[in-house]
Structure formats: structure tokens, C-alpha cells
């Protein structure tokens, strides 16, 4: 018998007439996540049922628990709708529970209203059956050591003891395509993850300054993308060399405006890449007020160079919240590797925090922007990073 996993979704159920489109996207993403395991994904009412090789049960659960749109999942045993079959399976599953876990409850969800026993009655029948055969057990409805759950569907029943939480949100690919500006820091990977959670297909753009910085900053970007790809299968990573631009900024422009000027050049490059790739929005890791380039005045002046929609998922989060999420996503330890990236290179001692647009544009007039952008785009390297 194959291993069976019941996959639940949450927000998708609220999508009304568009629900079918969201369900189809999630089903496609589940199949993609499991393509290594020869598994099937069956659509049910408000659920998906995954069937695959027993020896891969743990790996399938781990893979599914990272797919955006999945609210939770459980490994299940399947029976027919005969109450005696359900009782027999309940007895077998309770026998698997460690003997020190004595207090339990039974919880039934009956989507099949033709089933002759309402949910509370099923709870009582199965609870009594377990107490009769396992004298060590006691009922505890408030804080049980384990819960035996039963779902009564149209033509079968599912019993399970575990419940693994998923990331929730919407399935990747359902809301559009965006470009994540991926630095070497803590914030931008979290911003990318949050963008994917809202259903965006995300590509990443990392700026580096080789040979002024080592290749290790680029390796960090690859490793971060590999973590983010756990929820989407793969991420296309683009890399652009900013060394020539930074040399020109240092030679010709005001040191205190270097960061603002650099970020404006980055946005111009991101817009050009997005146009070439058919991407609809940019995602940044900006969180208002954290550093000099993230004051409201700096953000306003920086974004004036593009007409693209810029999404800032972290704008209302403080640093502790962002760090906690990075730890949860397993990107934090990668982000804090002590390798310089282009944003930390040539940092001014006293960066301007409230820049004026006319002053910034006067500095930019000293640059041959068209040639610099052309040279930077010529350095573009792209790779597909898989989970």
C-alpha cells in the first residue's frame, strides 16, 4: 500500500468564482514538488490526497510542507465508510502511540452529510472503543497527549495522528512575476519569501563588485536562492557586476551621496532586466528607517528613476521580526557570512540621509549613465538554482 498524505489549503477556499484556478495552480505545484517520487495528487473537496512510495513518506511530507498555498498536511490511513472498518483502523493507530502518552481525544470532521453518524457521535463511539481495548488510556478534551482525527469524505474515511503546518498563502505563479533585488544581507531573502507567499513567481538579481569583492558574495546569493527555492522548486538568479559603476561614482561624485546614486543605478538595471524578462514588479528588502538609504526621503529620491511597481514586504517589520523569520527560513546563517558585497564596498563615513532630488540629479549629470548601464548589462550572468 502506498503512503497517503492529506493536504489542506486555507485562503484559496475564499476565492469564490476564481477558486478553481487557484486550486489548479496549487495542484500543479504539488505535482512539481513531488516529481522525484512518482507520486500522484488527487483533488478532493477542499483537500488534495497525495499517494506515493512508503519509503519516501518523510521526504514527501518535508517537501510538501514548504509549498506555498499549503495550510497543513497529515499522513493518513484510508478506510471505507463502514463504521466497523473505521473502528478497526482507529484501534490499530492508537496501538502505535507510545505507552506513556495516555490522555487522548477523538476529533471528527464529516464533510459527507449522508454518513449516518454525526461527528459528535463518531467521537463517542471511537473513544469508547479505544477505552474498551486500551485500559491505560484516559479521555482529555482540553490537553490530550495525542488526538485521533477522522475525516469522513464522500466515499471514504481518513484517520491520522499528526498535523504538519505549511507556509499558507497562495500558490506560486498565480499572481504574477517579480524581480527580487537580492543583497547579501538578512532582509532581502525574507522579502522574497513573503513575495512568493503571495503567489508571485520570483526571479532574483544580485549585484557584485568582482574583483573588488571575492566570489564568495555570489556564492552566498546562490545558497540563499537554494533555500528560497524550497517553496517554488527553482529560482532564476541573475548577477550583474557593479565594479565599473562604483569606480565612476568614487571618482566623479560626492562621497556622501554614493549610496543613493548606487541604488538609483541598481533600479535602472533592475528595470531593464525586468523589461527584458517580462517581469511586472520589483521586490526589495527595505524596511523604513533601518539604515541611511531607508529613510523616507532616501526611498522617495531613489525610486524616482523607475516607473515600475516596487513591493516592500518588510516596510512595517522591525529588525527582530526580520531576523526571526530569516532564522525560520534557514537563510540567516548564510546572510551573516562575513563576505563583502557591493553595497558594503566604498561605504561613505557620513552618508546623506535626507537627499534632495535636484542635488542627486546634479551628481548624476557627471556620469555617462548610458555607457555605464550598457557595460553593466554586458556582465549579466544567469543561472537556474533548484531546491
Short description:
This protein has helices at 19-33, 57-64, 83-94, 119-133, 187-197, 216-228, 243-252, 258-277, 296-303, 319-329, 332-335, 357-364, 369-378; strands spanning 3-9, 40-44, 47-52, 70-79, 103-110, 138-139, 146-152, 157-160, 164-165, 176-181, 200-208, 234-241, 281-283, 309-311, 381-386. It is of the alpha/beta class and 387 residues long.
Structure write-up:
The chain has helices at 19-33, 57-64, 83-94, 119-133, 187-197, 216-228, 243-252, 258-277, 296-303, 319-329, 332-335, 357-364, 369-378; strands at residues 3-9, 40-44, 47-52, 70-79, 103-110, 138-139, 146-152, 157-160, 164-165, 176-181, 200-208, 234-241, 281-283, 309-311, 381-386. Helices cover 37% and strands 22% of the residues. Helix 8 (258-277) crosses helix 13 (369-378). Strands 1, 2, 3, 4, 5, 6, 7, 8 and 9 form a nine-stranded mixed beta sheet that branches. Strands 14-13-10-11-12-15 form a six-stranded mixed beta sheet, sandwiched between helices. The protein is elongated. The mean pLDDT is 93. The protein folds into two domains: 3-165, VC0802-like (2-Layer Sandwich); 176-386, 3-Layer(aba) Sandwich (Rossmann fold). The protein has 13 helices and 15 strands. With 387 residues, the protein is an alpha/beta fold.
Amino acid at each position: 500500500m502506498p503512503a497517503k498524505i492529506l493536504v489542506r489549503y486555507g485562503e484559496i477556499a475564499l476565492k469564490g468564482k476564481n477558486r478553481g484556478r487557484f486550486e489548479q495552480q496549487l495542484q500543479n505545484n504539488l505535482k512539481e514538488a513531488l516529481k522525484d517520487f512518482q507520486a500522484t495528487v488527487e483533488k478532493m473537496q477542499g483537500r488534495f490526497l497525495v499517494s506515493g512510495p512508503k519509503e519516501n513518506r518523510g521526504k514527501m511530507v518535508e517537501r510538501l510542507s514548504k509549498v506555498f498555498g499549503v495550510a497543513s498536511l497529515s499522513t493518513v490511513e484510508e478506510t471505507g465508510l463502514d463504521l466497523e472498518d473505521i473502528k478497526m483502523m482507529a484501534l490499530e493507530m492508537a496501538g502505535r502511540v507510545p505507552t506513556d502518552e495516555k490522555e487522548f481525544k477523538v476529533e471528527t470532521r464529516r464533510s459527507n452529510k449522508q454518513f449516518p453518524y454525526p461527528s459528535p457521535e463518531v467521537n463517542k463511539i471511537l473513544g469508547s472503543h479505544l477505552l474498551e481495548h486500551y485500559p491505560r488510556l484516559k479521555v482529555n478534551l482540553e490537553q490530550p497527549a495525542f488526538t485521533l482525527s477522522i475525516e469522513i469524505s464522500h466515499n471514504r474515511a481518513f484517520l491520522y495522528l499528526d498535523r504538519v503546518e505549511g507556509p499558507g498563502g497562495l500558490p506560486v505563479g498565480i499572481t504574477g512575476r517579480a524581480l527580487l533585488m537580492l543583497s547579501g544581507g538578512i532582509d532581502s531573502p525574507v522579502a522574497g519569501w513573503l513575495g512568493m507567499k503571495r503567489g508571485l513567481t520570483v526571479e532574483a538579481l544580485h549585484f557584485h563588485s568582482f574583483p573588488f569583492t571575492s566570489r564568495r558574495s555570489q556564492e552566498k546569493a546562490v545558497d540563499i536562492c537554494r533555500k528560497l527555492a524550497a517553496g517554488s522548486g527553482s529560482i532564476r538568479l541573475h548577477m550583474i557586476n557593479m565594479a565599473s559603476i562604483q569606480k565612476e561614482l568614487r571618482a566623479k561624485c560626492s562621497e556622501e551621496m554614493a549610496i543613493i546614486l548606487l541604488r538609483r543605478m541598481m533600479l535602472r538595471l533592475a528595470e531593464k532586466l525586468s523589461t527584458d524578462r517580462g517581469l511586472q514588479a520589483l521586490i526589495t528588502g527595505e524596511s523604513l528607517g533601518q539604515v541611511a538609504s531607508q529613510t523616507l526621503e532616501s526611498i522617495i529620491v531613489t525610486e524616482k528613476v523607475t516607473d515600475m511597481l516596487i513591493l516592500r514586504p518588510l516596510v512595517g517589520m522591525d529588525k527582530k521580526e526580520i531576523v526571526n523569520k530569516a532564522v525560520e527560513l534557514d537563510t540567516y546563517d548564510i546572510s551573516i557570512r562575513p563576505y563583502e558585497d557591493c553595497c558594503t564596498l566604498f561605504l561613505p563615513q557620513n552618508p546623506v540621509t535626507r537627499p534632495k532630488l535636484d542635488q542627486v540629479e546634479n551628481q548624476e549629470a557627471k556620469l555617462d549613465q548610458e555607457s555605464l548601464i550598457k557595460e553593466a548589462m554586458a556582465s549579466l550572468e544567469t543561472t537556474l538554482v533548484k531546491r
